Amino acid sequence: MSMKYQVSINASVLQAMLDLKGDQPCLQNWLRSWPELADLVFPDVKNTAGKCNDTATYWIGQSHWLVRAPLEREAALASIARAAETLTDVSAIVVSDAMAFYRIQGPDADQIISIASPLDIHDSVFPFNGVTYTEFFGLKALIIRCNDGFEIGTDRSYFDMMGDCFAHTVGRSDL
After folding, report:
1. Which domains does the chain have, with CATH numbers?
2. Average pLDDT, the chain
3. What's the CA angle centered on 80, arms 93 and 70, to 5 degrees?
4. b/e sequence 155-171, b meaning 16+ C-beta within 10 Å
5. Does residue 167 contact residue 149 with C-beta atoms inside 8 Å?
6. In the chain, pLDDT over 70 holds for what percent of residues?
7. 116-127: buried (b, 16+ CB within 10 Å) or exposed (e) per residue?
8. Segment 82-123, tens digit of pLDDT
9. Residue 78 CB neighbours (<10 A)
10. pLDDT, tens only, 65-79
């Protein structure tokens, strides 16, 4: 007998992503010269997201961030990445094509996360705007807690496989 979960699982729209590495004060100082990222908010706490308007910044490791923005901003992010090629203390690489995301919403979203991942998602350790890499259905994935559920990012090459895992878990074939 399979359980019925009250969740919706949907593919998120493709977005532009920029992988940033470097000392935070150095990055912030360098990025001030780019009006395209004037709305960039660096989180104050590791493994959380900073968000302003339609742009999110994920602090995912020591001196490591991901910037996620609407796809129409990808050309601007590519310009920033090209400018970083000459720097020694900053790395910026466009990784938009590398990841794809699912959004999980509904009263049972946390149950699906608990089935798929060993990550402790209790609010006290993984709060709203929490973000980290973890194992998810045996794959490396980025998990983000949103106000209405979770987003799960995986390598694009594993996206369909993850969809199959979701479909099997929730007992639906329409994912």
Report:
1. 8-12+98-170 (3.30.1360.120), 15-94 (3.30.70.1400)
2. 91
3. 80
4. eeebbeebbebbeebbe
5. no
6. 96
7. bbebebeeeebe
8. 998 888 889 999 999 999 999 999 999 999 999 999 999 999
9. 16
10. 999 999 999 999 999
List C-alpha distances in Å: 135 to 6, 45, 127, 131, 162.
Answer: 23, 22, 18, 13, 12
Q: What is the pLDDT of residues 15-39, one digit of tens each?
A: 999 999 999 988 888 888 888 787 7
Question: Tokens representing 54?
Answer: 């339609």
DSSP string, 107-139: TTHHHHHHHH------TTTS-TTBEEEEEETTE
Q: Is the separation of the CB atoms in 129 and 47 below 8 Å?
A: no
